[in-house]
Amino acid sequence: MHSDLEKILFTPEQIQARVHELGEKISADYAGKEIVTVGILKGAIVFFADLIREIKIPVKFDFMAASSYGITTKTSGTVRILKDIDTDIENKHVIIVEDIIDSGLTLKYLKNNFEHRKAASVKLCAMLNKPEGRRTDLTGDYIGFDVPDEFIVGYGLDYASRYRNLPYIGVLKKSVYA
Ligand code: IMP
Ligand code: MG
What single string gives the DSSP state of each residue in 37-83? Predict the structure, then answer.
């Protein structure tokens, strides 16, 4: 797997330090409240598992799986929910946890969806952010790192279902998918 990478962007140590900071920030921002973190399968699970252990206030968690419809049509922001949460989020403070924000279409749809279910608040947390890919006005509330507009793998992120188990984050060589 390692030889398929062009370069490493973030080492396990850098990731751990940043996730610790995000956990501290979330713990301070929500002090005295209870939160529900919703991880978006499958990419977010590695980050999710690390993040929740850095949050020092009560947390309930759940998972959701979604897939984008009409990925080729630029205007399509329709997302299909493949697995929904079981938790009742009415009046709850929700943090959606994603691996990466690219176009922002997936998270924009999910955020609206959760607001319609009358959550007390909905915030977005993503390990990575690709600002150049954005096709919506969406901005994350808690972001680990900004990344260039290249194909990123590792720490949960995949290409063709592979590389999710790499403990670091890197750029996949174009020769692997071109
Ligand atoms: P979007 O923000 O709606 O475009 O969708 C983001 C989703 O696309 C993420 O949850 C990832 O599954 C996937 N994705 C976007 N960029 C990358 C990447 O560089 N590597 C791996 N997956 C990516
Ligand atoms: Mg994803």
Answer: EEEEETTTHHHHHHHHTT--S-EEEEEEEEEES-TT-TT---EEEEE
Helix (H) or strand (E) holding 16: helix 12-29
Atom of ligand 1 nearest to the CA of 133: 4
Bridge partners of 146, per DSSP, are 129
pLDDT tens, position by position, for the chain (178 residues)?
889 999 999 999 999 999 999 999 999 999 999 999 999 999 999 999 999 999 999 999 999 999 876 545 444 667 889 999 999 999 999 999 999 999 999 999 999 999 999 999 999 999 999 999 999 999 999 999 999 999 999 999 999 999 999 999 999 999 998 8
Question: Is the shortest distance between the CB of 145 and ligand 1 below 6 Å?
Answer: no
Atom of ligand 1 at shortest distance to CA of 106? 3
User: Is residue 102 annotated as part of the catalytic site, yes or no?
Assistant: yes
